[in-house]
Amino acid sequence: MTEFELIRRFTAPAPRRGTGVVLGIGDDCAVLRPPPGELLLATVDAVVEGVHFDARFAPGDVGWKALAVNLSDLAAMGARPLWALCALAVPEGADPRRLAAVGRGLAACARRHGIALAGGNVTRARELSLTVTALGSAPAGRVLRRDGARPGDVLLVSGTLGDAALGLAPGAAAALARRQRRPDPRLALGRALGPLASACIDLSDGLAQDLGHLCRASGTGARVELSRLPLSPAARRALAGAADPFLAPATGGEDYELCAAVPPGRVARALAAARRLRIPLTPVGVVTRGRAVVLEGPSGARYRPARAGHDHLAPHRRKPAF
Amino acid sequence: MTEFELIRRFTAPAPRRGTGVVLGIGDDCAVLRPPPGELLLATVDAVVEGVHFDARFAPGDVGWKALAVNLSDLAAMGARPLWALCALAVPEGADPRRLAAVGRGLAACARRHGIALAGGNVTRARELSLTVTALGSAPAGRVLRRDGARPGDVLLVSGTLGDAALGLAPGAAAALARRQRRPDPRLALGRALGPLASACIDLSDGLAQDLGHLCRASGTGARVELSRLPLSPAARRALAGAADPFLAPATGGEDYELCAAVPPGRVARALAAARRLRIPLTPVGVVTRGRAVVLEGPSGARYRPARAGHDHLAPHRRKPAF
């Protein structure tokens, strides 16, 4: 199969037209019209076979996740998603039907969030990978950064935590495996939090680590009560009798939920906005002075997880962005 | 080495600030201010160890080329380059000094063209690769596309052809090897051609193939006189006595020169603009009715190169963009 045929098969299912696409796939660059007066937000992230996905992932899951993890970065900054580019690396002899199914997964995620696949490229490599660039926009005053948290802000976490990490276990419940394979970026919630939160980050590497990034950028500390971490029914079942029931919720990666710091006077509005969107949003702690990120167990004792803090280059560490 | 240390080393030499960088490396997304009223141009391209570069490339060449091939896409569309994101894939046990040198090469190319490295990510993979997203802008009326060529337009080629392909040969002259390893995208020329050319493409896969793309997109044919292809002194020496002296100039990839179709009434202005920029620009043929791309040898006979038309997925095929 030539690369032209491969590109055709991979891109055929994707939405190519959309807001501001002047010229999409087929020329040297995509030509895009940014929303007047707004800022452009850009992020890139790769999913690599054997690192970010394995044979347990259906091809469609791979394509979905490659786009979803990028859209989660846009969500974390309060952006509206607009366009994606996808660099595809394909091993010699790859099954064209499998690649077409990967393309359908990416297309499904793009359609769900109303964005267009505006360009990309394909190359040979030893393992399959997709490197997606996602572009979005936001009004200048609505961009959520990591570095704006202030002592006293309330820490709010969306959805439920630990599901994606638990979804990696052999025999994991379908609901947990689905969180691992088809993450659902919190774009609408991110935009709703744009005018309310003082800082935000998406939870790709686990709450302990990502909250650490937010606090370091903001020059603050944080205190989290582990008993308040939101758990799904499936996670509760999986964690019943676990040696460390807080390990997955506090340190498990890839939930792609949002963690926002919201000034106390705006918490009610943030919670109301989440209710309107039917997205759970749970206060789990506060931003503190100092530099320490303290996780408190139910007894009030400081929690020291077995493996908080990951090397993102280790297998199944997900979103080492810079 | 943790990924944070690796990111620090890789990105340290790169220019991070620049036109419109509101927030660069360090958050979930780069936040960028597009030039008001202009269109955004976006392209992505990967260079992969063993496919696009090998041990003959110094690490700095790899970083330079990864960015340069993307900037060439911006050049082909008449854009001003603004920002780049870089997704880095690193094999286990990679030498941190080598990665730092790759970063310095990328930084050197970014500085040369006045752009900022605004973001990126790092992941494990089996071979080293850099997937760069380049972003630029152009006024709406100045974007050069592939599909605007009209019969009678004159085909102009910048610089010299065949050097990069000849630079792959063992013992190639330093000038040729340098064209292969440190391509120099024709950004200023692309912008100068913006208001003059009816179509343009950059020569990543060789004139025969890339002109074919331009003609297919435009619904035209083309006739090129091979004896008019511009050759460097080093290429002339390398080709002296070659079995097929047109093979490298007509079909060799990776020169990253521009091929523009310019209406006859504007050719003098295009040539004058190139002279001002001190970039050779050579008429090599014309756009024709029909669909055939005809390469004419010195005798006037139709040329049939041994291997015109590449599978971009074969080793050392370079820029399979979509």
Quaternary organization: homodimer
Give the distance, in angstroms, between the N- and C-terminal Cα atoms of chain A.
36 Å
Strand content of chain A: 15-25%
Q: What is the CATH top level name of the largest domain in chain A?
A: Alpha Beta
CATH level 4 superfamily of the largest domain in chain A: PurM-like C-terminal domain
Portion of residues within helices of chain A: 25-40%
Q: What's the total count of β strands of chain A?
A: 12
Largest interface: A-B, 75 and 74 residues
What value does the average pLDDT of chain A take?
93
CATH architecture of the largest domain in chain A: Alpha-Beta Complex
Topology pattern of chain A, helix = H, strand = E: HEEEHEHEEEHHHEHEHHEHEE
CATH topology of the largest domain in chain A: Phosphoribosyl-aminoimidazole Synthetase, Chain A, domain 2
Q: What low-confidence regions of chain A span 5 or more consecutive residues with pLDDT below 50?
A: 308-317
| Number of self-contained structural domains of chain A | 2
The DSSP helix count of chain A reads: 10
Strand line-up across the major sheet of chain A: 8-10-7-11-9-12
Query: Which structural class do you get from the secondary structure elements of chain A?
Result: alpha+beta
